[in-house]
Design brief:
Layout: E1 7-11, H1 15-25, E2 30-35, H2 38-48, E3 52-56, H3 64-74, E4 79-84, H4 89-98, E5 102-105, H5 110-121, E6 126-127, H6 135-145, H7 155-165, H8 170-177, H9 181-195, H10 200-209
Parallel strand pairs: 1-2, 1-3, 3-4, 4-5, 5-6
Helix pairs in contact: 2-3, 4-6, 7-9, 7-10, 8-9
Length: 214
């Protein structure tokens, strides 16, 4: 019997990217599903339990860093490969710290995506050579940082902060998260207090500066 093909899930808010990655990987792997935003990805991943998830950092509703953080906890056996336009070492370091095993730039050659999937399936890390900092240094730093305490905000607060930064109102956030508007306002007040920020504009700027937005 032929060996069972690894099962992959692809997430990106641009369908052309999803289609391109899927077409590239289909000859060697089974594409079990796709997602267009972070929340859809979390739901699909829990349902499909893929071997590898390829996801973009910049996604609406929940960005790729936060999604990777949650997926690491929900599906510890699933490998995560980040596909991103961001080449700054800080993005790579944070992606690896929260649970990703691979980081590939969207501008990289197609062969790099295949290489990244191959490497993470073997239990190794893969960081595109185009990143300015040495990949080995980034991997070592990420490994040593995984024991660190979470940031100042809880996962729910980071989720709400991203939605606020996307310009979504209290009622829309409440509907998306299936909580009351009063609870949303309570979270927003707590976020402002913890970050010592006093306006929605300041919250949005903070979210952009810290990679919390999609």
């Amino acid at each position: 019997m032929p060996a069972q093909r690894a099962r992959l899930l692809v997430a990106d808010d641009h369908m052309v990217v999803v289609e391109g990655i899927s077409k590239l990987l289909l000859p060697s792997y089974e594409i079990v599903g796709t997602a267009r935003d972070g929340r859809e990805l979390i739901e699909a991943a829990q349902r499909l339990k893929p071997d590898v998830i390829l996801l973009d950092i910049s996604m609406p509703l929940m960005n790729g860093i936060e999604a990777a953080r949650r997926l690491r906890r929900l599906l510890p056996a699933t490998k995560i490969v980040i596909l991103s336009m961001h080449s700054e070492p800080e993005y790579v370091r944070e992606a690896l710290r929260v649970g990703a095993s691979g980081y590939v730039l969207k501008s990289s050659a197609s062969s790099e995506v295949i290489k990244a999937v191959e490497e993470v399936l073997l239990g190794r890390y893969y960081v595109t050579p185009q990143i300015a900092a040495a990949p080995a240094d980034l991997i070592r730093q990420a490994r040593s940082a995984r024991h660190m305490l979470p940031g100042e905000l809880t996962p729910r607060q980071r989720e709400i902060l991203q939605l606020v930064a996307e310009g979504r109102g209290t009622k829309e956030i409440a509907s998306l998260l299936k909580i009351s508007a009063k609870t949303v306002e309570s979270h927003k007040s707590t976020i402002m207090e913890r970050l010592n920020l006093h306006s929605l504009a300041a919250l949005t700027y903070y979210a952009v500066e810290h990679g919390i937005t999609g």
